[in-house]
Write a structure and sequence with these properties.
alpha/beta; globular
Length: 167
């Protein structure tokens, strides 16, 4: 997936009003991505929303409901950074802060869920720079990979975050 395809896919699912903003790290690698319905993050978020809101008839039905609820996945960077050396990842993340801040200012979400502890400081800086006062709660979850503990902590963190805001 190239950058143009990535941005078009994200835009296809962007709600008119973003209420719940998930912030991930960067463009997907290996064609695994939330909006492609084939990633560990997709499964974890769907599980969390199922526990919080009830069953969905299909993966497509979930994405439709996700969008209708005002939920949206954005990313700190638009390039894939997973396999870059650590120093280059840091530079890419730093470069992504202001553009993310601009998007947050435009979206004015009520809930922000940062979906990787490694990017927390960059995402929080973007939130601060955005100057928005609409955000009622910010949560940070581990990325749901490598262990069932991470998967469960991610799901439980999302559920807790969803309950922190009065819908």
């Amino acid at each position: 997936m190239n950058e143009t395809e990535f941005l078009a896919l994200k835009q296809q699912y962007k709600p008119n009003k973003v209420e719940i903003l998930f912030i991930a790290d960067g463009m997907p690698v290996n064609n695994r991505y939330f909006y492609l319905k084939n990633s560990s993050m997709f499964r974890a978020v769907k599980d969390a929303f199922t526990q919080a809101f009830g069953d969905f008839d299909s993966n497509d039905g979930f994405l439709t409901a996700f969008q209708e609820m005002g939920a949206y996945f954005d990313s700190l960077t638009v390039e894939p950074i997973k396999y870059l050396p650590p120093k280059e990842q840091t530079i890419a993340r730093q470069k992504g802060v202001q553009p993310l801040a601009d998007r947050i200012a435009e979206m004015q979400p009520r809930l922000v869920i940062i979906s990787l502890k490694t990017i927390e400081k960059y995402a929080r800086e973007a939130i601060h720079l955005s100057g928005v006062n609409s955000i009622e709660h910010v949560a940070v979850t581990p990325f749901p990979v490598k262990s069932m503990a991470n998967v469960n902590n991610c799901i439980n963190g999302i559920i807790t975050a969803l309950k922190a805001v009065d819908w």
